[in-house]
Write a structure and sequence with these properties.
Structural class: alpha+beta
Oligomer: single chain
Number of strands: 9
CATH topology of the largest domain: 60s Ribosomal Protein L30, Chain: A
CATH class of the largest domain: Alpha Beta
Shape: globular
Order of helices and strands: HHEHEEEHHHHEEEEE
CATH architecture of the largest domain: 2-Layer Sandwich
Number of helices: 7
Distance between the termini: 55 Å
Strand order of the largest sheet: 2-1-3-4-5
Radius of gyration: 21 Å
């Protein structure tokens, strides 16, 4: 289903994520910029691929707006801790990389102070109220910020990952649970799952 307008998209993202926050706004902008520049609308099933380099709130927005999900194999997570998002449209082979230019604390330095208090459980009711208000204010600022101010945006050449494959399962010889065959390990000539696998080391 293609979302009808910007307001509808944002409401669906907030409903999925549960609240408004700067991270969600970053994901919204990344997804909207990518779809606009690559396909101009939501891609058909798995033709759009998103590679995200963090596991922050932004990824929820990317899933809702682009339709890229872990379950379909077209959302790939690289644990780099970076606000970097690469989108690939398989139909054209084009890839767009977006790297965040500005830290949230730069947008509103006072937000960092109340956020620290809120996350530490030290916020007064007044602090908590200010924190909630500022989340909404920064959300709006990010949504309305010029795209080239918010992100470094560049077309890149990358090796496009293959589409998701379905693998058979084997039973772990230790715990008895099923594990996808491509993730199983062999120990003493028997299949074992990763948690049960004993790493060999001479140290």
């Amino acid at each position: 289903m293609v979302m009808e307008n910007e307001k509808e998209k944002h409401l669906k993202v907030l409903e999925f994520h549960g609240h408004s926050c700067p991270g969600v706004a970053i994901g919204v902008r990344a997804a909207e910029i990518a779809t606009d520049k690559l396909i101009s609308s939501r891609a058909v099933d798995e033709e759009l691929l998103a590679i995200v380099e963090n596991d922050s709130c932004s990824v929820d927005a990317i899933q809702v707006i682009t339709g890229c999900t872990f379950g379909k194999g077209n959302l790939i997570f690289k644990d780099h801790g970076k606000n970097v998002y690469t989108f690939v449209y398989r139909d054209s082979g084009k890839a767009l990389r977006l790297s965040l230019n500005v830290a949230i604390d730069e947008i509103d330095p006072e937000f960092a102070e109340v956020r620290t208090k809120a996350f530490a459980g030290e916020a007064t009711p007044e602090d908590q109220k200010l924190f909630d208000e500022k989340k909404d204010v920064i959300f709006d600022k990010i949504i309305n910020m010029p795209e080239d101010e918010l992100f470094k945006i560049e077309y890149v050449d990358i090796e496009i990952p293959e589409k998701a494959r379905i693998f058979g399962s084997v039973k772990c010889s230790k715990c008895g649970e099923l594990v996808a065959e491509h993730r199983a390990r062999v120990e003493n000539s028997e299949f074992v799952c990763i948690p049960c696998f004993d790493d060999y080391s001479r140290n």
